[in-house]
Amino acid sequence: MDQLFCQNLKMIRRESELTQKQVANRLGVVESCYANWEQGRTEPNIDMLRKLGDIFQVSIDELINGE
Description:
Order of helices and strands: HHHHH
CATH architecture: Orthogonal Bundle
Helix content: over 70%
Oligomer: single chain
């Protein structure tokens, strides 16, 4: 897993003032699933990337590559 993505995901979530649990609930996944994405243990599929972009109101490119 790309560490830049993990860092971006965590930073964007914190800037949005959301907890991991809140994001997981919005995505319909368990909190540990989302936490694994931030920690680089697993990675979201393209559908989840789209949903993350919608939740945080950023592009997929911004999630993956940063600003």
